[in-house]
Amino acid sequence: MAVLVGKKAPQFTAAAVVNGEEIVDDFSLEQFAGKKYVVLFFYPKDFTFVCPTELHAFQSKLEEFRSLDVEVVAVSTDTEQSHWGWLQLTKDQGGIQGVTYPLVADTNKTISANYDVLAGSYYYDENDELKAEGEMIAYRGLFLIDKDQVVRHQLVNDLPLGRNVDEALRIVKALQFTEEKGEVCPANWDEGKSGMSATHDGVASYLSQN
Predict the structure, then answer these.
(1) 61 and 17 in a common domain
(2) Are residues 153 and 174 in the same domain?
(3) b/e code 155-176 from CB counts within 10 Å (16+ = b)
(4) Catalytic annotation on 51?
(5) 4: in domain
(6) DSSP letter string, 65-84
(7) What CA–CA distance (Å, rounded) separates 140 from 3?
(8) Do 137 and 205 sit in the same domain of this protein?
(9) Could you tell me which residues are beta bridge partners of residue 175?
(10) CB-CB neighbours of 5 under 10 Å
(11) Nearest-angstrom CA–CA distance, 87 and 81
(12) What is each CA distance from 4 to 12, 32, 119, 178, in whole angstroms?
């Protein structure tokens, strides 16, 4: 598993559905450089069970993310046509109608591979024939990318394990707290709690208050 934290986020240009309806051929993270934070999350498949709960959960918090200068972007290995079709179905039908953040189509699997969240892998057998082990779909990866396009946080769940969107918001707020205050966030930090100065006196002051 590659650790991308502290490194430049792998770039890509790919087809995507934006605003819940429009297919574009050249979606890229570069448009957010110097302007926005990005929460980039991967999910395994369209038209499944856990995935729509996550996509709706991110949509329900979208305005809060955007109030923090964060763009939410989703990626799976399905096609842009599959994304668009799924968007036409209501929540009651198992669809994701109402999701407005971009859904990127990683149909050639390179985005998932570059972020090291591709569940399957290719290999050549003894007859030099190309084989696949596992499905070529993405694990539930999540990456927080700052305005300099550097990965500051990553989390990867196995396929059955849905993510906590409130935790994604918390980690965004923690990053912005450290950038604004110049302090670090201790265990279980949450919005409104004290940070710690990265000095002996700062640690002692925090401990005396908690």
Answers:
(1) yes
(2) no
(3) ebbebeeebebeebbbbbbbbb
(4) yes
(5) no
(6) HHHTTEEEEEEESS-HHHHH
(7) 15
(8) no
(9) none
(10) 12
(11) 10
(12) 15, 19, 17, 20
Q: Which two tokens stand for residue 201?
A: 């006196």
Q: Print the domain residue range for 201.
A: 164-210
Q: Which candidate, 35, 29, 48, places its Cα nearest to that of 143?
A: 29
Answer yes or no: is 66 within a domain: yes
| Tokens 């396929």 sit on residue | 159
Q: 158 with 205, same domain?
A: no
User: How many distinct structural domains can be found in the chain?
Assistant: 2
Report whether 153 contacts 171 (CB < 8 A): yes
pLDDT at 210 (0 to 100): 56
Amino acid at 176: Q
51, 105, 165, 171: which is the annotated catalytic residue?
Answer: 51
Residue 101, domain CATH: 3.40.30.10
Helix extents (H) in the chain: 50-60, 62-67, 80-87, 110-114, 165-181, 200-209
Q: For 92-138, what is each residue's pLDDT tens digit?
A: 999 999 999 999 999 999 999 999 999 999 999 999 999 999 999 99
CA gap 156, 3 in Å, rounded: 11
Q: Which amino acid is at 117?
A: V
pTM above 0.70, yes or no: yes
Are 38 and 148 a contacting pair, CB within 8 Å? no
With H, G, I as helix, E, B as strand and everything else as coil, classify residue 157: strand
